[in-house]
Amino acid sequence: MTELSRAYDAQTPDATRAKYNAWADTYETELLAGGYRLPWIMATAVAAHLPRDAGPILDAGCGGGLQVEPLHLLGYRGFTGLDLSPGMLDVARGKGLYDHLIEAALGDPLPFETGQFAATMTAGTITPGHAPPEAFDELIRVTRTGGLLVYSMRHDAGQEAAYLDAIAGYAARGAWREIYRTPVFHTIPVGAPDVMNAVHVCEILE
Prior knowledge:
By secondary structure, the chain is α/β, with parallel strands linked by helices. 36% of the residues lie in helices and 26% in strands. It has helices at residues 2-9, 13-23, 27-33, 38-49, 68-73, 86-95, 136-142, 161-173, and strands spanning 57-60, 79-83, 100-103, 117-122, 143-154, 176-181, 185-188, 192-204. Strands 1, 2, 3, 4, 5, 6, 7 and 8 form an 8-stranded mixed β-sheet that branches. The relative contact order is 0.17.
């Protein structure tokens, strides 16, 4: 998983964008060969808690759209995808799953109205080497009160305390209420066996 390591080593949004643009054509092939599980576990968590007719849904850090593919097959519609990489957005565009695709970086102000989405999902993005923990501020803002924010979080030696502190802080201030969390699982068991994640499902309270 050399390309994955390089992507996580990027220190700025511009560097991360460049890494993913260069990787876009082979990203899915390489991760799937490594046993990448996160998109389907993310989709399962969304489907277990969100009715099919409860759109629109923001896929923040959408990449090529792996996590939307199973949801689309199950009848979910109304997806907006957001990613900082034009190359990854081109892959997603080719699948025809999204109503809208927008280039933007998590951690920056997002070009959406407050409470615009019934649910927001973000898989493998708010993590060291990618988006900062304060990126949740905007995801909370654009998700309607009573809506869902479904996100993955690393639970391994590569995690930084600031991320776990942040999610505890959002709960403590009443921004969200966690209603479900998967067990911690191997995210890429063949290609990167040390990477562990859990998927968290939260109801937005603000």
